[in-house]
Amino acid sequence: MTSVPQADEHGYPYTNEWYNSLKRSLGEAGCRQLGFYPIPPDFLLSVVIPIFNEHKTVENLISQVKAVPIRKELVLVDDGSTDGTREILRNLEEQMQVENDPQNQVRVIFHEQNQGKGAAVRTGFMEAQGDVMLIQDADLEYDPSEYPRLLQPIIEGKADVVYGSRFLGDQPHRVLYYWHFLGNKFLTTLSNCFTNLNLTDMETCYKLFKKEVIKEIAPGLCQNRFGIEPELTAKVARRQCRIFEMSISYDGRTYDQGKKIGWRDGVKALWCIVRYGLKD
Ligand SMILES: Nc1nc2c(ncn2[C@@H]2O[C@H](COP(=O)(O)OP(=O)(O)O)[C@@H](O)[C@H]2O)c(=O)[nH]1
Ligand SMILES: [Mg+2]
């Protein structure tokens, strides 16, 4: 029986040693099928987290992000929270600075006033330094343990942008609002008509960008609220980026649990699809 391959001396997977040892036992094709691949040691992932009144979930979410075995910087952008989230973030920042974990650097930015998810994401992208940047909502609807899968097409040089899709594949999905799903489908379809991209989930939170792509786009982002999703999509489409989609899981929350997006945001998204579909 072959022994279980050990991670390198730091105990981290995705190193060359770790990958070579798996390749010896599983073969290259087996590794591909299982999503095992090496990540360069100097690679840095920026996890941009827009946060507004998420005191119930933010600590748990941040520990899940920290547990992902990839070198990262967490860019936490508080968007004028008033429910105690800011105090939680101050403590977390202090604690992480004491830990001084080379795998998990942290930066916390406070907006004085609430501006919306788009504004928080833009601030995060402007501050971030990583080779790849992704958006992570601060509730627990999306699962950070999926980062390595989502990153693979970028690290292997095939993609400039990756969207995680809630409507592809057989990852677990909580079954929730049907009208919401239809609204999502409609917005994605309309966005596709303008961009000529065949996306299945334009409104997904999991959007990953190579640094060069997002550093070019971020300064010109205008949408302060949820209009950021169609705006980003139209702008990457216009730049002829190589876009991949990957299936992701989705543990959607209910309005009672704090979901905030509403029909007004849907109407605004419609307007943004047309507006940014026509010009930057
Ligand atoms: N709703 C809302 N979310 C914001 C705002 N600023 C930052 N966010 C963050 O943006 C993310 C998405 O918001 P969320 O309510 O989960 O959207 P939904 O799940 O699509 O309903 C969360 O991490 C929020 O904390 C804001 O002004 N309003
Ligand atoms: Mg959410």
Strand content range: 5-15%
Strands side by side in the biggest sheet: 3-2-1-4-6-5-7
Main sheet overview: 7 strands, mixed
* SSE order, one letter for each helix or strand: HEHEHEHEHEHEHHEH
Helix/strand-derived category reads alpha/beta
CATH topology: Spore Coat Polysaccharide Biosynthesis Protein SpsA, Chain A
Poorly predicted runs: 1-6
> Compute the gyration radius: what is it?
19 Å
| Global outline | globular
The tally of beta strands, per DSSP, is 7
CATH level 1 name:
Alpha Beta
Helix count equals 9
Distance between the termini: 58 Å
Mean pLDDT: 94
How many domains comprise the coordinates? 1
| Small-molecule binders | guanosine-5'-diphosphate, magnesium ion
Helix content: 40-55%
Set out the fold topology:
Layout (H helix, E strand, L loop, with lengths): L15 H19 L10 E7 L6 H9 L5 E8 L5 H15 L4 E8 L5 H11 L4 E4 L11 H9 L5 E5 L12 H18 L11 E4 H7 L10 H11 L4 E5 L15 H16 L2
Parallel strand pairs: 1-2, 1-4, 2-3, 5-7
Antiparallel strand pairs: 4-6, 5-6
Helix pairs in contact: 6-9, 8-9
Bound molecules: guanosine-5'-diphosphate and magnesium ion.
The site of magnesium ion (MG) has 3 residues, from loops.
Report on the structure:
The protein has nine helices and seven strands; from the N terminus they run αβαβαβαβαβαβααβα. The protein has 280 residues and is an alpha/beta fold. It has one domain: Spore Coat Polysaccharide Biosynthesis Protein SpsA, Chain A. It has a seven-stranded mixed β-sheet, sandwiched between helices. Helix 6 (178-195) packs parallel to helix 9 (263-278) and helix 8 (228-238) runs parallel beside helix 9 (263-278). The termini are far apart. Mean pLDDT is 94; it is low at 1-6. The protein binds guanosine-5'-diphosphate and magnesium ion.
